[in-house]
UniProtKB/TrEMBL annotation:
Gene Ontology MF: a single term: nucleotide binding
High-level lineage: Bacteria, Pseudomonadati, Pseudomonadota, Alphaproteobacteria, Rhodobacterales
Protein name as annotated: Gfo/Idh/MocA family oxidoreductase
Domain GFO/IDH/MocA-like oxidoreductase: residue ranges: 129-248
Xref: Gene3D superfamilies: Dihydrodipicolinate Reductase, domain 2 (3.30.360.10), NAD(P)-binding Rossmann-like Domain (3.40.50.720)
UniProt keyword annotations, A-Z: Oxidoreductase
Length: 332
């Protein structure tokens, strides 16, 4: 399969280009808003062509799929153009600036009959797959609560618009809370109903929030507590899932790399949980290719992207208003 890259991004260079090529696929062209940056990016990554024109990239001979990793406000129009051109789409999260826009993207792909996926990499990690399986197998009984601690220190090369540009979709809520929403949905197979939250600036945000804490209610009665931040260099990250018959502790697993530890604690003691340490992005791209071939579905499809954005949007609204906010999934 031939790919076009929409966005000459850091995440593509660090993770996705290699994952695409690991499937035996090739990258035909990259689009960047800056011609010089695009040409340099193409040269550094062995990509045959670069362009500043989206239509030109979509018309590149043989391109069947695109990966969108531009700033958040560009995802909606770029994805719709790619879908209209009949391309399969893997889009970075959040899918769009609003839930309504994200829903429009998912519905357009469904109508066109193309694969539309959200790059929620965490659900491809061996650690998270193991946690989901432990819950599904009933190893901790009925889930009572989940605590997600995802307060990290955003490295300088990733700061930029994420800490200063609300118009481009900056802020920790669209950057990290969406991941935690998807992770919780992946574990429990249910969607948050209502959230309360507080957000603030703790040293990095310039016109956008850099820290947030929230609590979510679930249809099953489980309660979810999450903490996301850009400003915590030594906090560590992870997940706790507590049930009537045991607890699961995942430490150092909220990351793009196959690292960390998972432990199950129950009446018989503490048990280290083994998990596969495969490449997260390689697994995601393999499932995407299978979906394009008509076998199965992507790791996270467009509806998953809509729903994670809906939760994050509700968290931001709850923090803004100081009121409990119901999650609006726009009919999904």
């Amino acid at each position: 399969m031939k790919w076009g890259l929409i966005g000459a991004s850091t995440i593509a260079s660090e993770y996705v280009i290699g994952a695409i090529r690991s499937q035996g696929d090739e990258i035909a062209a990259v689009m960047s808003g800056d011609a010089a940056r695009g040409a340099d990016y193409a040269a550094r990554h062995g990509i045959p062509d670069s362009t500043t024109d989206l239509g030109g990239l979509l018309a590149t001979p043989g391109v069947e799929a695109v990966y969108i990793s531009t700033t958040n406000e560009k995802h909606h129009p770029q994805a719709l153009a790619a879908i209209a051109a009949g391309k399969h789409v893997l889009c970075e999260k959040p899918l769009a600036m609003t839930v309504a826009e994200a829903a429009e993207m998912a519905r357009a792909a469904r109508a066109k009959g193309v694969v539309f996926a959200t790059n929620h990499h965490l659900r491809n990690a061996g650690a998270h797959l193991a946690i989901r399986d432990l819950i599904a197998e009933g190893r901790i009984g009925r889930v009572l609560s989940v605590r997600v601690f995802h307060a990290v220190h955003l490295p300088p090369h990733l700061q930029g618009w994420r800490i200063s540009d609300a118009g481009a979709g900056g802020g920790v809520i669209p950057d990290i809370t969406v991941h935690d929403a998807d992770t919780v949905r992946f574990y429990l197979g249910e969607d948050p109903v209502e959230v309360v939250a507080m957000a603030g600036v703790s040293g990095m945000g310039e016109g956008v929030e850099d820290s947030v804490m929230s609590v979510w209610s679930m249809p099953s009665g489980a309660m979810i507590q999450t903490h996301e931040s850009f400003t915590h260099p030594f906090a560590g990250s992870g997940v706790e899932v507590h049930g009537t018959e045991g607890s699961i502790f995942g430490r150092g697993i909220m990351t793009q790399k196959p690292v960390g530890e998972v432990e199950l604690v129950d009446a018989s003691g503490r048990h280290a949980v083994a998990f596969d340490r495969h490449d997260l992005y390689g697994r995601g791209l393999a499932l995407f290719a299978e979906a394009v071939a008509g076998r199965g579905r992507p790791a996270a499809d467009g509806v998953d992207g809509v729903k994670s954005l809906a939760v994050a949007t509700a968290v931001r609204e709850a923090a803004r208003t100081g009121r409990a906010t119901r999650v609006n999934y726009e009919g999904f």
